[in-house]
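Comment thread on ticket #2218

A.B. wrote:
> Attaching the input chain for the structure job we discussed in standup.
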Amino acid sequence: MTQPVGHEVPELEFDETVPPRPEEEIADVARSVPDREGHGGSPDDTAAVARS
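C.D. wrote:
> Ran it. Output below, let me know if you need it in another format.
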């Protein structure tokens, strides 16, 4: 017999009908640090801005 695989289904918030996709969560993290120059940059630039 095969054993059931332990797939976990993410719980939804009361107002959500579908869970966020992984790329949406990554975008949220990227947006958490403001782009003061307004045009992106390398991750090293973002860390320098966050420290100032």
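A.B. wrote:
> Thanks. Noting for the ticket: Residues 16 and 22 are 15 Å apart (CA to CA).
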